[in-house]
Amino acid sequence: ELCEILDWAKTHVFSVFSICWGAQAALYYYYRIPKYPLPQKMFGIYPHQVLVPRHNLLRGFDEVFYVPHSRHTETRAQDIENCPDLQILTYSHLAGVHIVADNRGRNFFVTGHSEYDRDSLANEYFRDRSKGLPIQIPYNYFPDDNPENVPYFNWRSHANLLLGNWLDHVI
Question: pLDDT tens digits, residue range 62-108?
């Protein structure tokens, strides 16, 4: 079913913005870029760097910005760098590849969760903990790593900028 949607998107939409698992699935479907299991869940708020500062999707971005991640797999930079049709726009030394674009600048593959609300990671953490699942405290999320503290919402402005840039400067 997802393959049908991705096929349809090739001819019926101007731009595709894939997020997290959807980004990994689309990278595999379009370019055969594999995903790899992680030894433990990538879970928290990670600093990222802009690698292509003049890209329309990244207008107004700071050199370093924060993004939530919550995933059990990764896409590796080397695989993307080996594909001449793709480029990595943003990267984290801790979380890895973040935003990948095709060379036409119309399709974007985002491994993080800029769309998350302030409490999304907290809800996920408490849910998994209550089920007895192995879950670590989200990295760089709760002040002092104390789940009783209200998390900072330090990715909101870049999340809004990312979506706004996609709508205003790509679409």
Answer: 999 999 999 999 999 999 999 999 999 999 999 999 999 999 988 99
Which positions are catalytic?
20, 113, 115
- Cβ-based neighbours of 112, under 8 Å, separated by 6 or more: 19, 20, 46, 48, 67, 68, 69, 95, 98
> SS3 of 169, please?
helix
What's the longest Cα–Cα distance across the chain?
49
Each residue of 112-134: pLDDT tens digit? 999 999 999 999 999 999 999 98
Return the number of other C-beta atoms located less than 10 Å from residue 34's C-beta. 13
- The whole-model pTM stands at 0.93
DSSP state of 139: B
Tell which phi-psi region holds residue 20, choosing left (phi > 0), alpha (psi between -120 and 50) or beta.
left
Which burial class, exposed, middle or buried, applies to 137 when counting CB atoms under 10 A from its CB (0-12, 13-18, 19+)?
Answer: middle
Both structure tokens of 7 = 């096929």
Degrees, nearest 5: CA angle 135-136-139: 135
Of 67, 33, 70, nearest in space to 49 by CA: 67
